[in-house]
Design a protein that fits this description.
Enolase-like, domain 1, five-stranded antiparallel sheet, four-stranded antiparallel sheet, 29% helix, globular
Length: 348
């Protein structure tokens, strides 16, 4: 049986109190909400904070406000079950609800939070083992060792970003609000993740993720498709988030680009983001460029999927054979874009 190490448990009543505790305690303190990522890591001795600060019950972190017209603000301690069942999210941002529904199991979604999923530790077959197993191989670069067993000649940790909500947030242009004793700052989801399995977040240890700001829908649609071995519980070994926006062009697109058919609706903006195959989400610009300025038809969808296949370079540190996962980047991009196409329906 793996047991938790000893730690002090703090339960602040306000955001100000929470960030003061972490500032006073220093790097040996860590925030926790649902604990579905942190506590297993502590049992495996991957993370060992001396002070754990619970933010699960802070009122400001458990609210949803806004709508599709104004944009939505979601508190970081909202449970994944609340995200799945919230009527505003299901109506105005269904991609968030559907992506959250793919995470783990109903029991764990009752505890896990949206903020926790966005801050999820990177994962690897050599890292996500108990202490004795990792000690037997002389540990790894991410924790206690000096070699990456995925790529022994590399000085970089290749543990993968395995959140289901991160690719979606990057694709739709969400922003994250962080609070510390030094003040607030807002950062784009697209700029929040580092391509490094160890230093994977642009977040200081003293900062608390308070809420997530979603932009107004304003005519865009999005989809998330997830590859995993089982239909529940498993982390993604590939996730594809697709975002597409149409506008009335009257012969011209934004920034002076010409449309291919005067007066037709064509793709004005698009983003395709891959998750689960690298230390950070991968935004495939070549895939988006295959769509922008053109109708969302079969030829363009195929071209976008091919661009994702070329860009995807998974490594052998999660489930399934890596070359097959690369092939699936094409197929799951097709699924995501066809789903977006069906959402537009008669709008096309």
């Amino acid at each position: 049986m793996m047991r938790l190490p000893k730690f002090t448990y703090r339960t602040p009543r306000t955001i100000a109190e929470a960030v003061k505790i972490v500032a006073d305690t220093g790097p040996e303190a860590q925030f926790v909400a649902g604990g579905t990522d942190l506590y297993p890591n502590m049992k495996r001795r991957q993370q060992m904070p001396k002070t754990v600060i619970s933010v699960m019950r802070l009122p400001e972190l458990n609210q949803v406000s806004g709508d599709a017209g104004k944009g939505l603000v979601i508190g970081a301690s909202m449970t994944l079950t609340d995200i799945v069942e919230n009527e505003i999210i299901k109506r105005d941002y269904p991609v968030i609800a559907s992506a959250a529904r793919t995470i783990s199991t109903p029991i764990l979604r009752n505890m896990g939070t949206i903020g926790g999923n966005l801050l999820l530790d990177t994962r690897c077959n050599y890292y996500d083992q108990n202490y004795e197993w990792r000690k037997a191989i002389n540990f790894c670069l991410k924790k206690d060792g000096d070699i990456c067993w995925v790529a022994p000649g590399s000085s970089k940790c290749w543990a993968v970003q395995s959140s289901d909500l991160v690719p979606v947030m990057v694709a739709i242009g969400a922003k994250l609000r962080l609070v510390s004793t030094l003040g607030d700052r807002m950062i784009d989801a697209a700029g929040f993740y580092n391509d490094d399995g160890i230093d994977y977040l642009k977040k200081r240890p003293d900062e608390l993720l308070v809420d997530i700001h979603l932009p107004p829908t304003n005519g865009w649609r999005a989809s998330y498709q997830k590859l995993r071995r089982r239909g529940a519980f498993d982390f993604p070994v590939l996730g594809v988030a697709a975002y597409v926006k149409y506008e009335e062009t009257n012969g011209a697109l934004p920034n002076g680009r010409a449309s291919d058919t005067s007066g037709n609706r064509v793709v004005a903006d698009a983003k395709i983001v891959l998750g689960g195959i690298a230390p950070s989400p991968i935004q495939v610009n070549e895939s988006a460029q295959a769509l922008i300025g053109k109708p969302l038809d079969e030829d363009q969808i195929q071209a976008a999927a091919e661009a994702c296949y070329i860009k995807a370079r998974p490594l052998d540190n999660t489930d399934f054979v890596m070359n097959w996962r690369k092939q699936m980047a094409r197929q799951y991009t097709l699924r995501a874009l066809n789903d977006v196409h069906s959402q537009f329906g008669e709008y096309l």
